[in-house]
From TrEMBL:
Transmembrane segments: none annotated. It comes from the Bacteria. Keywords: Hydrolase. Residues 961-1118 form the Helicase ATP-binding domain. Pfam families: Helicase_C, SNF2-rel_dom. This is SWF/SNF family helicase.
């Protein structure tokens, strides 16, 4: 702490009074200053005696070394009182007090002041007064000035909002010196700013330094990690009329909530969820999405009540007011009761709600909406007695008056104008509402209209429009109608069940426990146990179904006397003899020991079993009990029998005994008589002796599959029913061979063939591959999802053998018979450049589905099954599914149906192969014939072409000529160096007699194009657009045999001129230049009018599939539909790995793209060797890189949750900084210019070795700055080189290239983007890439400058990358990127785009 001065740093005062008071303070005598400092530290509640006491305890001395005595203290206080400082030290929000607080803690005696303060706390000398400052508030104040971040952190971690509220009395209205504020720790700076913001939102007075304050808040929005701060800032941005900024804060809050998610629904987590919902609701409300907003507000309220454990509470503060306005904006009189309930609940907590006056204003608006103007008047009059109003509450009060009586508002126009002026720069939403009112009542509405129409205004609703106000009599009449006529309940869309009951059963001991589960995205949560009292009372109501009600009805509710008999207790629980029986057949029974294990409970009766025994016959019960009971018996692993032993069976058991009774053989006739007499009784008899003469039937061995729906799939259990559908179930191959049952009141016997039952079931299971590896035991299977279940049902339906399916009520899944393409009929009709596609699929005799609807449903589902309106699932053959996928991708919706571009006719014809009926018109047939005729066209290479084409080049010419003959555009995508130029010139020469041709190329290769045309096609007249004196005259003079060569830059500049001219052929060289359809060069290219459009590029897709759309929008406009349609149909599905979408896109573009690689067609090209050399950094350079990397990650993590594009820009900027650091430290950290740089050192060693062996090399880097460093190093070593970057003029580029090809210079330094295309540099046999580029295709093109036709020596390519850095990570991406270019051409399935998370993963290493 400074010890040399009592003078504090300057704090900007806010008024003349503050200036005067601070001047008085500065003029104080030293003793009076000490007293002022002591008073500032101790607080406003310590008077003279208290100050003397604490000064004595702290041994505070005066400048002359003497102790502070009563006389000096009295004189000093007198001086402070005379100049008003004593009172200023006791004021809240005092600028002067703030100034003196800072000075006190910079006083050399500050430690004594703090010691005195501690003594004051121990001695309890505080005097209660109007200026009472609690001990907690005093400690907070001192912690702020002491910059004690640990103390503030402890407070804000527990109660952030409460902490900030307590600080408003000190800092709420202060103008703070930016330097002092920046000197505070981040948590303290945040606390001060939040205190100022809360003060502003509460009192409504914008801080005097509001512009600076707003900038500080916006910085805080980007950096804070405190959820409470984000919530308050979101409210501020809402009142600022910025749903966009509010949405950004919302996304950050969601990220924090997800990071803090423990999976437990704690009160804090639920309160966060409520905040997220109400902020999202505010965004929707301001943006005009009222229905969505209302749903979110209701959900926020539900969560808020859950977190606070209060049922009669409403959303407080701004969110509650906007929720009420949202409900009003619905304009539904039937919702007024809900609004009234909200307002009553808000009134209960009005003492804790700074916006409580706003809720009274809502009452006024509600009364107006109900036509009760008298109630509105009385409520408005009562509100006038309130003193405090927040800006929003005040505005709503004025809005209510405006809605009630505009004339009254007009009389107060001046007052409202002042409020408009106050808030137009600080709370635009509030100001807009005033502007909207004043525009209606003011004599001069222009300034208000201008404000409402300001350019930077976000598109939000006006709060004056939340209600449509009619005349008072009309409002009253409408409300009367509401009271007299019962409103019809609005139809609500079917909601997904949010909660459900499950029943946990312990199979070993039979205990039962009800549990309530809540749905989540991927199923249900673990749930919470419910008491039986809660379930039986059903308060609050539970979401239950008929199965649950059956179980609940079985529960026991009664009274029991206490153990000593002194009292009676109410008891709730399962009934020992009813509840297990009620759970039989319930679809949601789970094992209490393993909640993931679902159980199936089935009722099973006790049987009287008669069997052969030694010396006679044994009669016994299958289950014995000495009292009525119900218990569980395992049948399979997850299937349990519920066995009931009723009283009459207990009595039978008492006669027979636990082990049964043995009857001697001479009692045989009596047994037979007893059995015959007992047939049809309540106790089933299972006789295993032949003597019982009951007519027997051959038991049915047909497998019976019991199907029980579980969460998203099916549980399958196998049984047989020997007696048919009305008889009991038995396990196949198990139990007795001869069984008895009561059928239609008569006892019947069935003889079972156990081996045949097992064989029939085995055959069925073998015919259902879906059951493979799904077994839970010998006779149970579980299919986890709907798709597997449908596959299984389809297999069962196709099974030829006998099988019977049993479903629970309302749980049946029905599948149609297998439908193939032969059931589909398609109609094709011409419509300009398109063909309309319609048709139908006949599912059965009674059901036909429209093709458009079929394609839409198929697009929303996966697999071979589509759900129909009647609940059934349409089962399709794999071929039909593939055809629908292909047809859905090839066609697009146009509002009337589906349509397909004329150029896609052949792909559609292929997709419809095998369709039952194809009804096409004349134009379709002509189009197909035109395509076939183009395929039969055999063009000859023009005799005037002065070049001998290789075989593949001749084939390329014929391919181009056929497409031109058809009238379609083409993309020649041969590998770099394969002679795309000469193939294009050949087709130009063929079509030149029909009209002029335009060639658009990068500036660097325009001259080369002119030279190549003159060399290979002398009959053509070449004109370079750049050299033309009068360009318009030149263009108009062009005719057959003329070729105009221009750059992309001139194309854009002269777009109007060049687009007016009809061209025979338009050629785009290096067509990846138009990969971004939004650029001006791309748009200018699209405007060219040509009979044949040709794109030349070695990389039709560099990064994203949208690049392919742009390319095809030039060569065949409309073929791929709109960009939005293309993204939906192809780009997004392909990125997700959708093979069908990729195949469909390939079918569409395949006829118009021709790509050959060097390895496939140039067996005579010299060998090409590629090697990656990893560079190791020394310790200093590695430390610098790591520091930059950690700093980059920190900056990214502190970014707000912005839109993906904006966030990605920040991430890429940090990545670029690290990549530059890998090249040379000085490129990222100028202070590191003294470092040599590991990559530069290794490069120079490599150059020395190359020159010793007489090699020449091309050196590429994407960073001109790094090339400058390389040039300087080469100059120092006297190494000759040539140089080219994006700033090199065209003529100079040509000069440099020719010189290098002629032998001048050992190295050619080239910036990657400037010289990576269009150059022929075969004089070099080595290529060095100093730094890896994102897209390896760009590097490959650059390497192709040397490895191309004309190269006689093997070419070696070196890639330098720094080990353990982001460069090595980029190299790891190159494999996928190379596959991307081949995705549509070679059939690979690589995806393209890097997400933000993947980019951040590169940063993390």
């Amino acid at each position: 702490m400074p010890q040399n001065s009592l003078t504090p740093p300057t704090v900007a005062p806010t008024s003349t009074d503050d200036d005067r008071s601070i001047a008085h303070y500065e003029a104080l005598a030293p003793c009076a200053k000490i007293v002022a400092h002591l008073k500032a530290i101790a607080g406003p509640y310590v008077e003279k005696d208290g100050l003397l006491t604490v000064a004595t305890v702290a041994k505070l001395t005066l400048p002359d070394g003497t102790a502070l005595n009563p006389q000096v203290l009295g004189e000093s206080i007198g001086q402070l009182k005379r100049n008003g400082l004593w009172n200023r030290l006791g004021e809240a929000h005092s600028q002067v007090r703030h100034h003196i607080n800072i000075a006190a803690l910079e006083d050399p005696r500050s430690d004594l002041y703090l010691k005195a303060n501690q003594a004051a706390e121990r001695r309890s000398i505080y005097q209660f007064s109007n200026h009472y400052e609690s001990a907690g508030a005093r400690q907070l104040r001192l912690a702020i000035y002491l910059n004690d971040d640990e103390f503030i952190t402890d407070y804000t971690d527990k109660e952030p909002a409460e902490t900030w509220n307590r600080l408003t009395q000190f800092f709420g209205l202060l103008v703070l010196e930016p330097q002092w504020l920046e000197s505070r720790a981040p948590v303290i700076r945040e606390a001060i700013l939040m205190a100022k913001l809360l003060s502003f939102l509460y009192y409504g007075a914008p801080p005097a330094d509001f512009p600076a304050f707003l900038g500080q808040l916006r910085d805080l929005e980007r950096t804070t990690l405190t959820p409470a701060a984000l919530i308050i800032l979101a409210k501020f941005e809402t009142l600022s009329g910025s749903p966009a900024r509010t949405a950004l804060l919302l996304s950050r809050l969601r990220e924090l909530a997800e990071a803090d998610d423990t999976g437990k629904a704690t009160d804090h987590a639920v309160l966060m969820a409520s905040a997220i919902e109400h902020i999202a609701a505010m965004v929707d409300f301001l943006s005009g999405r009222n229905a969505e907003a209302l749903g979110r507000f209701r959900e926020a309220l539900r969560l808020f009540r859950k977190a606070t454990h209060k049922r009669k509470i409403f959303l407080p503060d701004i969110q509650g007011l906007l929720a009420s306005l949202c409900l009003l904006r619905e304009g539904d009189p039937s919702l007024m009761r809900e609004l009234g309930s909200w307002l009553n609940d808000a009134d209960r907590d009005s003492g804790f709600n700074p916006n409580y006056i706003g809720f009274w204003a809502i009452r006024v608006l509600s009364a107006i909406a109900r036509g009760n103007d008298r109630e509105a008047e009385l409520t408005l009059a009562a509100m006038a007695k309130s003193l405090h109003r927040t800006p929003l509450s005040r505005m709503l009060e004025d809005l209510a008056e405006f809605m009630l009586d505009r004339k009254r508002t007009g009389k107060r126009a001046g007052e409202l104008h002042d409020l408009f002026v106050r808030y137009k720069g600080s709370l635009p939403l509030v100001a807009e509402t005033y502007a909207a009112m004043l525009e209606k009542v003011s004599d001069a509405p222009e300034p208000y209209l201008d404000f409402l129409d300001r350019r930077d205004r976000e598109p939000i609703i006006l709060l004056t429009d939340v209600m449509q106000v009619d005349e008072p009599w009309q409002r009253a009449l409408d409300h009367l109608q509401t009271l007299l006529v019962a409103p019809s309940k609005p139809e609500e869309p079917a909601k997904k069940k949010g909660k459900r009951l499950i029943w946990l059963v312990d199979p070993d001991i039979g205990t039962i426990e009800p549990v309530e589960q809540t749905s989540k995205r991927d199923g249900w949560n673990t749930g919470r146990a419910l008491s039986f009292r809660r379930v039986i009372k059903n308060d609050p109501p539970l979401e239950v179904d008929e199965d649950d009600r059956r179980v609940i009805d079985s529960l026991h509710h009664g009274f029991e006397r206490s153990i000593y008999g002194y009292s009676v207790n109410e008891v709730y629980g399962p009934d020992p003899n009813k509840t297990l029986l009620a759970l039989a057949g319930h679809p949601r029974v789970f094992d209490a020991n393993d909640r993931n294990r679902q159980l199936e409970l089935v009722r099973y009766p006790v049987e009287l079993v008669i069997s052969e025994a030694r010396g006679g016959y044994r009669i016994a019960l299958s289950h014995f009990a000495d009292a009525p009971t119900v218990f569980l018996e395992p049948e399979t692993r997850d299937r349990y029998r519920v066995i009931e032993v009723p009283l009459d069976v207990v009595r039978v058991g008492a006669l027979l005994g636990p082990d049964g009774m043995t009857v001697p053989r001479d009692g045989r006739e009596k047994i037979i008589a007893m059995v015959r007499k007992s047939m049809g009784g309540s106790l089933p008899i299972r006789s295993e002796i032949d003597a019982v003469d009951v007519p027997a039937i051959e038991g049915s061995p047909t497998p019976v599959l019991r199907l029980v729906p579980i969460d998203r799939g099916l549980r399958v259990s196998a049984f047989v029913r020997p007696f048919g559908e009305d008889g009991p179930h038995y396990l196949p191959g198990h139990a007795g061979k001869s069984v008895l049952a009561l059928i239609d009141g008569k006892t019947q016997r069935a003889n079972r063939d156990l081996e045949r039952e097992k064989a029939e079931l085995a055959t069925l299971v073998a015919s259902c591959p879906s059951l493979a590896e799904r077994a839970l035991g010998d006779l149970d299977w579980e299919l986890p999802d709907l798709f597997d279940s449908l596959e299984f049902l389809s297999e069962v339906q196709a099974y030829d053998g006998p099988v019977q399916l049993e479903w629970p009520e309302e749980g049946r899944i029905r599948v149609t018979a297998m439908t193939s393409a032969e059931s589909m009929s398609v109609k094709l009709r011409a419509a300009r450049d398109w063909f309309q596609v319609s048709g139908e699929l006949r599912i059965d005799e009674n059901l036909v589905m429209d093709l458009r609807e079929l394609l839409e449903r198929a697009g929303r589902t996966q697999g071979r099954f589509i759900q129909l309106d009647d609940g059934r699932f349409l089962a399709m053959t794999e071929q039909l599914r593939r055809q629908l996928d292909r047809l859905g991708s090839l066609t697009e919706g146009d509002g009337k149906g589906r349509r397909v571009h004329r150029m896609a006719a052949s792909a559609v014809e292929e997709a419809l192969e095998g369709a039952g009926k194809l009804d096409s018109d004349k134009q379709w047939r002509e189009q197909i014939e035109k395509i076939r005729a183009a395929g039969r066209h055999e063009p000859k290479v023009p005799s005037t072409l002065q070049a001998e084409l290789r075989d593949y080049q001749a084939e390329g010419f014929r391919w181009l000529s056929r497409l031109a003959h058809w009238g379609a555009g083409a993309c020649l995508a041969d590998d770099m160096g394969l002679g795309k130029t000469v193939q294009a010139i050949a087709v130009m020469l063929e079509h030149a007699p029909r009209g002029a041709i335009i060639v658009v190329a990068p500036t660097s290769v325009c001259h080369n194009w002119a030279a190549e045309i003159e060399r290979f096609a002398p009959p053509l007249r070449v004109h370079q657009f750049a050299n033309a004196g009068d360009r318009a005259v030149l263009v108009k003079s062009l005719g057959p045999m003329d070729v105009l060569v221009t750059s992309y830059g001139l194309l854009n500049l002269e777009s109007a001129l060049l687009s007016e001219t009809p061209w025979q052929i338009a050629v785009l060289d290096e067509a990846q230049a138009i990969k971004n359809a939004a650029t001006k060069r791309a748009q200018a290219s699209m405007m060219l009018q040509a009979e044949f459009r040709l794109a030349l590029t070695g990389t039709p897709v560099e990064n994203y599939l949208e690049e392919l759309w742009s390319l095809f929008h030039f060569i065949n406009p409309g073929l791929l539909g709109s960009l939005e349609s293309f993204r939906k149909r192809f780009a997004l599905p392909i990125e997700r790995g959708d093979r069908a979408a990729r195949q469909s896109l390939k079918a569409l573009v395949g006829p118009f793209i021709l790509r050959r690689t060097k390895s496939a067609v140039l067996t005579e090209l010299p060998e090409r060797t590629e090697q990656t050399i990893l560079v190791d950094l020394d310790d200093d350079e590695r430390a610098l890189y790591e520091a930059l990397r950690r700093r980059a990650i920190e900056r990214i993590e502190n970014l707000p949750g912005e839109a993906a594009g904006q966030r990605k820009i920040h991430i890429l900027a940090e990545i670029t900084r690290l990549r530059r650091a890998c090249c040379h430290p000085s490129l990222a950290a100028p202070e590191a210019s003294g470092m040599e740089g590991a990559k530069l050192s290794l490069f120079l060693e490599l150059v020395d070795e190359l020159l010793r062996n007489r090699h020449k090399a091309l050196v590429f880097s994407q960073y001109v700055g790094f090339l400058d460093i390389v040039r300087k190093a080469l100059d120092e070593r006297g190494i000759a080189y040539k140089y080219l970057d994006g700033q090199t003029p065209a003529r100079e580029r040509e000069k440099q290239v020719n010189a290098f090809q002629a032998g001048e210079g050992d190295l050619f330094l080239i910036s990657l983007k400037a010289g990576g295309t269009g150059l022929n540099l075969t004089a070099a046999d080595y290529v060095i890439h100093l730094d890896p580029w994102w897209n390896p295709a760009v590097e490959d093109q650059a390497s192709g400058r040397a490895h191309r036709i004309g190269q006689q020596r093997p070419v070696t390519i070196y890639r330098l990358a720094v080990a353990g850095t982001i460069e090595q990570g980029i190299l790891g991406l190159h494999k996928d990127k190379r596959q991307m270019a081949a995705e549509l051409l070679d059939g690979s399935e690589a995806s393209a785009k890097l997400s933000d998370e993947e980019l951040i993963g590169l940063l993390r290493g």
